Amino acid sequence: MFAVGAVVGLLGGMIGLGGAEFRLPLLIGLFGFAALSAVILNKAMSLVVVLTALPARLATVTAVELGAHWAVAVNLLAGSLLGAWAGAAWAVRMRTATLYKVLAALMVLMAAALVLTHVSLGTLDLPPTVQAVSGVAAGFGIGVVAAIMGVAGGELLIPTIVLLYGVDIKTAGSLSLLVSLPTMLVAFARYSRDNSFSVLRQNVRFAGVMVAGSITGALLGGLLLGVVPDLVLIPALAAVLLISSIKLARHQ
To answer: What span, in angstroms and rounded, lies between the C-alpha atoms of 213 and 9?
Structure first.
């Protein structure tokens, strides 16, 4: 459990993300959790990782620098909080077979977003009103995806922040955590109303050990950031996500 968590954290740390998208297929394929139980466990562990990562990021991008972009966070949160509640509500109502297929499709989306995040992104020069509406819409979609997969959503938030608001990618990474945290809490609150939430009480030790591994791996991955060229690392990780999506789509 610790080793798997460490590998997930290492992969996430090396690309500046949490790695929850790599954890989800392992929870299902390796540890045998049903789709919804895996999503809830993944959400709980992602929440702890984000809580750990946010203070660490403040050493790189200060609170004052983040405060200068408070309107960006508010704009995205206006949509993501609603999206998180809606996404969690849809997930608990889906048939298990349907949820596997939805998760597989979202893994493909994450692979595409991973590649997009690590290429040179321009900025969409939109009028303020259009930008605000686009931010709410994008936030809603990201909230839905993050809730259904049990992830923080940084893979989608970072390119959105760069494209819509012209924020540099380092600051966008920290802003994504600020948006992710309340978004995840809303999804978590919705999941807590479902009977499947008992999977956390039944697997406290499992989750604790894997989170410890994920945090350890993420710290190590952060130190190795840039050691493996992006031209090698990003396509390889995108391929991992695509292979995982195929396995999830076929999962019974």
So the answer is: 7
* pLDDT tens digits along 124-152: 889 999 999 999 999 999 999 999 999 98
CA 26/CA 217 separation, integer angstroms: 16
Output the DSSP codes for 171-216. HHHHHHHHHHHHHHHHHHHHHTTSGGGHHHHHTHHHHHHHHHHHHH
Euclidean distance between CA atoms 61 and 158, whole angstroms = 15
Q: What is the pLDDT of residues 96-122, one digit of tens each?
A: 999 999 999 999 999 998 888 777 777
CB burial of residue 209 (10 Å; 0-12, 13-18, 19+): middle
Tell me whether residue 214 is exposed, middle or buried, using C-beta atoms within 10 angstroms of its C-beta: 0 to 12, 13 to 18, 19 or more.
Answer: buried
Contact criterion met (CB below 8 Å) for 175 and 72 = yes
- The pTM is what? 0.91
Cα–Cα nearest to 144, from 189, 186, 200: 186
